[in-house]
Amino acid sequence: MRTFLIRTASATVYALLFLGTLLSGHFLHNAQLGLVIFAAFLMFVNVGCTFEFFRMVGQQGAVPSKVLGYIFAVAMLAMVAVAPLMDVLVGFKLVLFAIILLPTLFALSAIVQLWKHSEQPFRDAAYTMVPMLYIAVPLSLMLAMVPEVGARVVLMVILMVWINDSGAYIGGSLFGKHKMWVRHSPGKTWEGTAFGVVVTILVAIFLGSWLQPALAWYHWAALGVICSVVDTLGDLVESMLKRSVGVKDSGNIMPGHGGFLDRFDSLLIILPFVFVYLNIFASL
Predict the structure, then answer these.
(1) Is pLDDT of 166 > 60?
(2) Is 0.85 surpassed by the pTM of this model?
(3) Are the C-beta atoms of 79 and 94 separated by less than 8 Å?
(4) Burial class (CB in 10 A: 0-12, 13-18, 19+), 56
(5) Contacts 24+ apart (CB under 8 A), 104-113
(6) What average pLDDT does this structure show over 13-39?
(7) Which of 32, 44, 80, 103 is a plausible cystine mate for 140, CB 3.0–4.6 Å?
(8) Higher-pLDDT residue of 67, 86
(9) Higher pLDDT residue, 257 or 42?
């Protein structure tokens, strides 16, 4: 019972912080201030995830340039955060500049390895870049979606991830018989995954259409498929990372739930797919 109460309290605080900062612009009747508050929360998550990633890969002997890694990750999110507050053209050029700069940043990461005593310098140069690409860019896309498609759409994406996780757990407990991917996540079953997908699509169609009626129901259905399927794959990707370095949880900031990466693993993989779909197939 004590463990259950700790997990519940931890999840409640997490949900209140996440959703409260996301919807702060609505509550305060100030969209720009709300964007700044949400950006501050995402920056906190960005730094926390980066710290956990470097700590995990360090356990397998990797020696990435942590200082550069933090600078890259923080700068990427910061540039996207200030872009909406600037002139549209200037903001766009700022984000475009950040993307074009990527090859230069990798070259800088590789050059720094010349002064490090690493047995695999190119691996460690790549690890220096991973937090920016795997963590900061997806979080930046989430932040960019708020003024572009609205906080309600972002809220619905978050809810679909949580609903899929809950549906997969319930479906697996009730009907689960066939293991899905034993090597990376022995608890997942095909039955539970299918149940989560169906529930997520149905909720997306009805709740999503109510929250943002400007988006047709079939777009919500497509987003339900994307979120539920990629959610499962994202969870497996982080499980693969943790197993490769021999840890059970990425951290312990959330008692009973693990660390930042444990909570944001699926969203980090989902956000690029959702962003692309909304901008190409379902532009609002």
Answers:
(1) yes
(2) yes
(3) yes
(4) buried
(5) 105/68, 105/72, 105/129, 105/132, 108/68, 109/64, 109/65, 109/68, 112/65, 112/68, 113/65
(6) 92
(7) 80
(8) 67
(9) 42
